[in-house]
Design a protein that fits this description.
This protein is mainly α and 38 residues long. It has helices at 3-22, 26-37.
């Protein structure tokens, strides 16, 4: 596994933890991020 893949997995894990702490789903968090960066 490359370090780039590992970084992507770690980022997804932290995003899932963030979504959980906010009481929303990971998909909802992704939608929020897309709206924020759009």
């Amino acid at each position: 596994m490359s370090s780039r893949e590992l970084e992507a997995i770690q980022e997804e894990c932290s995003n899932r933890n963030l979504a959980f702490s906010l009481g929303i789903t990971y998909d909802e968090l992704c939608e929020l991020q897309w709206e924020t960066f759009a």
